[in-house]
């Protein structure tokens, strides 16, 4: 399966995913899903009862991609592969989502301080009859953080739109003692796995 043009749709509002795609020269067009609780959401990110972190992140990534592909068909847009993704942070089997405010962000970083947690990023590609997904898992160890360091970080804007309450591409890079996995995966888009899926959809990389 070869594509007529070397371009994809990105069904994500994440600026980090855009940066990573540009880093490796993948051209894309944004296909934004609604994520406003006041106006409704296209794909819910609520965790289902007894859902494991692995099942959760894979389901959300697949559902985002499927909704976006259906949007392409409904709107009669130019058919291109759709890339979707979802990232979650987990520790001891518990999912740490995006903190709702400073108190929750502080509590998350206190929990991560001096401990090892996992970052799961699931990537999905939809194109015609193709619907495939893969999840990349990275282990991240934080140094022991002082209360002052946690408060200073949570006084910035960084923690509040990110799973686990931190972004490794920003100030929180100073917290990380060790990584076992994919740096780009921790940012929100594991590039090796992404490229593998896009090649299956016919994108020459």
Walk me through what this model shows.
The structure is a single chain. The protein is α+β, with helices and mostly antiparallel strands and 205 residues long. The chain has one domain (8-200): Maf protein. Helix content is 32%, strand content 26%. The chain has six helices and nine strands; from the N terminus they run βαβββαββαββαβαα. The protein has helices spanning 15-23, 53-75, 102-112, 147-154, 183-187, 191-200, and strands at 8-10, 28-30, 35-36, 40-41, 82-91, 94-96, 116-127, 130-142, 176-180. Strands 1, 2, 5, 6, 7, 8 and 9 form a seven-stranded mixed beta sheet that branches. A two-stranded antiparallel ribbon has the order 3-4. α3 packs across α4 (147-154). The longest helix is centred in the first third of the chain and has 23 residues, at 53-75. The two termini are 13 Å apart.
């Amino acid at each position: 399966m070869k594509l007529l043009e070397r371009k994809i749709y990105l069904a994500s509002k994440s600026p980090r995913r855009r940066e990573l795609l540009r880093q490796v020269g993948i051209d894309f067009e944004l296909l934004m899903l609604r994520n406003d609780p006041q106006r409704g959401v296209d794909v819910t990110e609520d965790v289902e009862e007894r859902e494991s972190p692995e099942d959760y992140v894979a389901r959300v990534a697949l559902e985002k991609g499927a909704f976006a592909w259906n949007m392409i068909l409904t709107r009669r847009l130019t058919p291109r592969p759709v890339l979707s993704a979802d990232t979650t942070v987990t520790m001891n089997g518990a999912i740490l989502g995006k903190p709702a405010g400073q108190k929750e962000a502080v509590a998350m970083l206190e929990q991560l301080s001096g401990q090892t947690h996992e970052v799961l990023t699931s990537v999905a590609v939809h194109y015609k009859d193709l619907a495939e997904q893969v999840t990349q898992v990275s282990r991240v160890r934080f140094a022991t953080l002082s209360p002052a360091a946690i408060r200073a970080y949570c006084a910035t804007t960084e923690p509040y739109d990110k799973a686990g309450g931190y972004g490794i591409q920003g100030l929180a890079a100073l917290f990380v003692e060790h990584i076992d996995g994919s740096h780009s995966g921790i940012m929100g888009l594991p590039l090796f796995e992404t490229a593998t899926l896009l090649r299956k959809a016919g994108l020459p990389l």
